[in-house]
């Protein structure tokens, strides 16, 4: 069982599986959301994810065209897990313990949208747009 939480601890969650893959999205939305090169997430099936505290506290922002939604803690502003689709959640890996032994960057998505100053320096497979794993 992996436990994660926001900076202030008001929102926490559990993941009932081992995680191996990190996907970094380099699109402009994720750059703005994270304030850095992109967002590093792991994808977790809905039946393996559970809010353990503060689910009713989670705030959301919906992109005006409706094709993307972010979730965040209204107290500390930490990015939080969100629905990836109807079968899975994306979980920002920075919310998880830093000592998950086998967790590695495996994919970079929306590389064609990355900032000019962003240099990818690991062995993760690069995809010009999305990755359907």
What does this structure look like?
The chain is mainly beta. The chain is built from 1 helix and 12 strands. The strands form 3 sheets. It has a 6-stranded mixed beta sheet with strand order 9-10-4-3-11-12. The two termini are 23 Å apart. The mean pLDDT is 91.
Fold blueprint:
Layout: E1 2-5, E2 12-15, E3 21-25, H1 28-34, E4 39-45, E5 49-53, E6 59-62, E7 69-72, E8 79-80, E9 82-83, E10 88-92, E11 104-109, E12 125-126
Parallel strand pairs: 3-11, 11-12
Antiparallel strand pairs: 1-2, 2-5, 3-4, 4-10, 6-7, 7-8, 9-10
Could you give the order of strands across the largest sheet? Answer: 9-10-4-3-11-12
Q: What is the beta-strand fraction? A: 35-45%
Cα-to-Cα separation, first versus last residue: 23 Å
The H/E string reads EEEHEEEEEEEEE
Helix content: under 10%
Query: What is the alpha-carbon Rg in Å?
Result: 14 Å
Q: What structural category arises from helix and sheet content? A: mainly beta
Mean pLDDT score: 91
What overall form do the CA principal axes indicate? globular
């Amino acid at each position: 069982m992996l436990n994660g939480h926001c900076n202030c601890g008001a929102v926490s969650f559990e993941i009932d599986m081992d995680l191996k893959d990190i996907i970094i999205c380099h699109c402009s939305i994720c750059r703005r959301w994270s304030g850095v090169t992109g967002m590093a997430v792991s994808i977790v099936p809905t039946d393996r994810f559970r809010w353990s505290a503060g689910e009713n506290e989670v705030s959301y922002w919906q992109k005006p065209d409706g094709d993307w939604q972010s979730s965040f803690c209204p107290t500390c502003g930490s990015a939080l897990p969100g629905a990836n689709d109807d079968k899975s959640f994306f979980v920002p890996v920075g919310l998880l313990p830093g000592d998950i032994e086998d967790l590695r960057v495996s994919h970079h998505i929306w590389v064609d949208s990355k900032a000019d100053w962003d240099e990818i320096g690991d062995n993760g497979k690069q995809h010009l747009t999305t990755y359907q794993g």
